[in-house]
């Protein structure tokens, strides 16, 4: 199967003590780039370069294999960093050997004591192929930047989705705990209702005048006893205030006595309600720990 790819042909410059080595390379970007790492090859010119077989990063005849390529990550690695890695690694051990000839285009002068001469340079017009390669390079750089932005946005969205998933999981666990607590409380209510129904069925023939309510409603713990006493006290205060209103209307007591007694009862009722609220919250906390 033939796979589409884009080839980038050029040179990397390796700085050496007495001269610079220009290494011709080809970088091949496949259709799945940047998910797939680029392939890099040395493109030696016949009669000018020979491959340095002692270089550990040369595989086969001319393939370059460095850690930056083998450990390629599309979210972190770029072509610019790839080229810089090639320069850094090959500067210590160039992958090619320059064959020095008099008529060679790459004839490097190793003698630093040379005379400076003024020369006139002419710029050769670029071919259509070179212009196309430059255009493709710019387009690839732009696509790489766009892909990096897209990857960053997707990573941010993925992080937000993970947070939302954690929040939903926590909510589900909370609902499950509340459901279990409700089921337990519902079962307790059903059991108590069953006991009460059985008692009523057993005692339905007895006269209500002989039934002592205080013997039937017996609190089973301290908090229940406190709540029962506070509820009874609150109701007693309400009844007292009601009858004080009746006495005031009938003119049995004076207004000053009425107000004095009502203020006293209102203060006592406020304290009773607050204590009942604390007892209730303590009961709820005990239930949440129990279930």
Automatic annotation (TrEMBL):
Cellular compartments annotated: Endosome
UniProt domain UEV: residue ranges: 1-100
Keyword Acyltransferase: no
Superkingdom, natural source: Eukaryota
Residue ranges annotated for the SB domain, each copy included: 221-289
Keywords, ordered alphabetically: Coiled coil, Endosome, Protein transport, Transport
Chief subcellular location: other
InterPro entries documented for this protein: ESCRT-I_UEV_domain, ESCRT_assembly_dom, SB_dom, UBQ-conjugating_enzyme/RWD, UEV_N
Signal sequence, start to end: none
Coiled-coil regions listed in the entry: 133-164
TM regions (residue ranges): none
Family: Belongs to the ubiquitin-conjugating enzyme family. UEV subfamily.
Descriptive protein name: Tumor susceptibility protein
